[in-house]
Predict the structure.
Amino acid sequence: MKKFTSLLIGCSLALAGATMAQPPDQQSTPTKKKPAAQKTHAAEAQPGANAAKPEGTVAKQHGARNERALPKGQKGEATPKSANAPGTTETGVSGQPVGGTTNEPGAAKGRKGRAKSETAAQTGTDVTGQAASSATPGAKQQAEQGRKGMKGRAAKTSATPAAAASAAPTGAAAGQQNAQANVAGPQQVQQIKTQHANFRAQPKPDKVPAVTFNQNYRIQGSDQWQGQQYEVFRSYHPERHDEGWYRSHYSRVELIGGGYYFFNNGYWFPAWGYNPSSEYYAYDGPIYVGQRAEPPDRVIADVQAVLQEMGYYRGEVDGLLGPLTREALTAYQADQGLTTTAAIDQPTLDSLGMG
């Protein structure tokens, strides 16, 4: 009896152990393998999907077995979703991209679109090369400022030489500006006159040659000088008389700078023939001094000193109306818009503040 009982218990234990050693797949219904295989084939045959990857297949098979092994409540967590939609990346169980591929046509289109948008934003044009009407206000403003800046620089570059050339005074305008800038003031003129109060000119034939008598002499160009103030120059012609004649016609005859002069109505004239031994004249013509009848050499010295201060006269203040003094007078008169008489006349003396 005891042997029979032990044999029965041993058989039961052996049956129980054989049952427990059977694999789980054999315990499940065999129909569940078929859907997993169909699902795998369907995924591989789906149009537009990427080529099957070994890693993806293994992941799906393991997922199917895990789904059967896990309880019903955990099946959804163990099965990963396939990301085969166009333009997306296929992922595996771990969430990482499988094969590292994307839908290339869609990606290429996206990159081209972004490149065109960036180009249009930078150049202010659309993809057809025309100006973009829908450009942002900031881009329009920047483009407009850039164009204005370029125009301004171009205008500045092109205008600079012309402006410099037109602004630079030349000829008479330059001399006139120089004369106006350096014109002697009343105090300076009065100071010069005070310095020359006792001035007496001396003949210098070696430096300032003397002119000779010519009864047919006329002041060159005087016939074109318009105005009453130039009438005395237009009508002047030298005459030769003795001392008695001059004394009978003029109340004032003086020896000035080596020659005799007579005074008449604001002008000094050479008294040719008054004394043949004293006929040194640097200039044959009237010299205006005004009604105060100052000696002509003193007035000439005053004019020379003022023109010297203004940069016109570079000679010696000698009281002789020689070539250098006449050149300085001509330049000053031209710059001031006066008639170029090359002589000391009323308009010139008034312009110098000595009238």
